[in-house]
Design brief:
about 450 residues, alpha/beta, 6-stranded parallel β-sheet, 14 helices, about 30% helix
C-alpha cells in the first residue's frame, strides 16, 4: 500500500549562520518506541468490549497515522461492531466495508449517529474526541449518555478531556488494538450479534437512500433564507447535487483535499476511501485557504496518484496566488474544484441565524471568474453549471492530469446554506452595537 507519508521539518537557524563559515555537529536522530498502553487498562478495555451488547468503534486520525486500519478492521469484525469515523477522517476505515457507518459530526452520516447513539460501550481508537465528532449534527444529539467510553490516544493530555472515560489508554492505536483483540473473551460480540448486524445494515441502507435524494438544505425550518436562495437561482445546482456529480467522476484511488467553508463541509458525508492518507482536511483550526496548497503538496509526495482539491470561492481567494507558480515546468499537475456561490457561506449562515434571516458583509464579486484567472496564468480553466458538465469536466481533468495538465474547475452553485459549524454557539447576541437592519441587504446577482 502506498502511504505517501511526508515528513515535516521546522529548522530554526541563527542569523549569523548565514554569514559565516562554521562547523556544526548535528545530533543523531533518536527514534522512540511508541507507547503500547498499560496492561491493566487494556485488560479492562477487553473485558468491557467482551461484555458489551452494542459495542461501537470510533476510528480517528491516530488509526491512520499509526497504520492501524487493518487492526481496526479485525477488531470490528471480531465484535461485529459498527465503525464510525471521526470528523474529517473518512479515510480511517474502508468505506466499502459492511461495518463502515461513515463520519460523525457536522454534515456527517446519520447512520453513524444513529448507531453510536445505541452504544453501551464505545472504543474511541486513536482520537482526541474533538467537538465536531461529539457535538450534535442535523439536530441529532447522538453522543450516548450512558455508554462506557474507552479512549485510546497517544497524547495523554487529550484523554478524558472532551468526554468522561471509563478506561483511558495512552498508547499507539495499532499496538493497543492488537492487544485488545488478543484479550477478548471467546464469546465477545455474541450478545445481540444478529440483531446488531441487522440494525447496522438497516441504518446504512436508509442513510444511503436518504443521502442520494438530498438535494437541498432544510436544516432550519424556521428561517426563509434557503427558500429565497433557491427562488433566486432556480436553475443553479445545489451543493449536494454538485457533490453527487463529483462522486460519479472521482477516481477510486484519488487523494483529495478539502478547504474550510460551507460547500466543502456540506460534502463531508460523500467521499469514502479504501486506504488511509487519502483525505487531507483542515481540521478544527479552520485554516482558510488550506485546500489548494495541500493538494499541491500531495501531488509532490505522490506524483503517480490522481489528486483533486476542493475549496469555496471565499477560501480559494486566500491562496489563489499559487496559480501563478503552479504552471511552471517543475511543478506537478493537479485538479482543483472551486465552488462558486459568490459568498462567504459559513459566515452568512452565522449572520442569518443571528440577525433574523439577514446578513452582513458576506458577498463576493459576481464578475470574477476563477476559470478565466486560471487561463490567464497559462492553465486550463473550466466553468460548469450542471451535474453532467461537472462529472464530465472532472473526469476529463483527472485524465489530463496524467499528461501534466493542471485544470481549475469553477462550479457555479446556488446560494443555499448548510448547517452552522457550531449550532450550540448560535444563540442570538443580546445586542450588536452599530448594526442596523438597512445595512443588511441581499446581493443582486443578475
Amino acid at each position: 500500500v502506498q502511504t505517501c507519508a511526508l515528513p515535516i521539518w521546522q529548522i530554526n537557524l541563527p542569523r549569523d549562520y548565514w554569514t559565516q563559515i562554521i562547523d556544526v555537529d548535528l545530533p543523531a536522530i533518536v527514534r522512540f518506541e511508541r507507547p503500547a498502553g498499560g496492561a491493566k487498562a487494556i485488560a479492562e478495555a477487553a473485558h468491557l468490549l467482551s461484555e458489551a451488547k452494542f459495542p461501537v468503534i470510533l476510528s480517528g486520525a491516530g488509526v491512520v497515522i499509526g497504520g492501524a486500519i487493518g487492526d481496526c478492521v479485525a477488531l470490528a469484525e471480531r465484535l461485529d461492531a459498527p465503525v464510525c469515523s471521526g470528523y474529517q477522517h473518512n479515510d480511517s476505515f474502508p468505506g466499502s466495508h459492511r461495518l463502515a457507518a461513515g463520519p460523525l459530526g457536522y454534515n456527517g452520516s446519520k447512520a453513524a449517529m444513529e448507531l453510536i447513539a445505541k452504544a453501551d460501550v464505545v472504543l474511541a481508537l486513536g482520537t482526541r474526541l474533538n467537538p465536531f465528532s461529539t457535538l450534535p449534527g442535523y439536530g441529532i444529539d447522538y453522543w450516548p449518555k450512558l455508554a462506557k467510553i474507552i479512549q485510546v490516544d497517544i497524547n495523554p493530555d487529550r484523554i478524558g478531556l472532551a468526554k468522561p472515560v471509563a478506561v483511558g489508554i495512552c498508547g499507539d492505536a495499532k499496538q493497543v488494538a492488537q492487544q485488545i483483540l488478543a484479550q477478548l473473551s471467546p464469546n465477545a460480540g455474541n450478545a445481540g450479534r444478529d440483531v446488531r448486524k441487522a440494525t447496522i445494515h438497516q441504518a446504512k441502507s436508509a442513510w444511503r437512500q436518504a443521502l442520494s435524494s438530498m438535494d437541498h438544505e432544510d436544516d432550519d425550518p424556521g428561517t426563509t433564507w434557503n427558500d429565497r436562495a433557491r427562488q433566486r437561482d432556480p436553475q443553479r445546482m445545489s451543493p449536494r447535487q454538485a457533490w453527487r456529480a463529483i462522486q460519479a467522476a472521482l477516481p477510486k484511488d484519488a487523494i483529495i483535499s478539502s478547504d474550510i467553508g460551507n460547500n466543502c463541509a456540506i460534502g463531508n458525508a460523500y467521499p469514502t476511501f479504501e486506504q488511509g492518507r487519502k483525505y487531507l482536511a483542515p481540521g478544527l483550526f479552520g485554516p482558510c485557504g488550506y485546500g489548494f496548497p495541500a493538494i499541491i503538496g500531495a501531488k509532490i509526495g505522490c506524483p503517480d496518484v490522481p489528486v483533486v482539491g476542493f475549496a469555496g470561492d471565499g477560501a480559494f481567494g486566500i491562496s489563489m496566488n499559487e496559480m501563478s507558480s503552479i504552471g511552471r515546468a517543475e511543478w506537478p499537475a493537479i485538479t482543483m474544484v472551486i465552488f462558486r456561490n459568490y459568498q462567504w457561506g459559513a459566515e452568512k449562515r452565522n449572520t442569518t441565524l443571528w440577525y433574523s434571516d439577514n446578513f452582513v458583509g458576506t458577498e463576493l464579486d459576481p464578475h470574477l471568474s476563477y476559470a478565466r484567472v486560471a487561463e490567464g496564468c497559462g492553465l486550463k480553466g473550466v466553468a460548469v453549471a450542471t451535474q453532467e458538465e461537472l462529472t464530465k469536466g472532472l473526469a476529463e481533468a483527472c485524465e489530463a492530469q496524467k499528461r501534466g495538465v493542471t485544470t481549475f474547475i469553477e462550479v457555479i452553485l446556488n446560494q443555499e446554506l448548510g448547517e452552522p459549524f457550531r449550532r450550540d454557539a448560535m444563540k442570538k447576541p443580546v445586542i450588536v452595537a452599530g448594526i442596523r437592519r438597512e445595512d443588511m441587504r441581499p446581493q443582486d446577482l443578475s
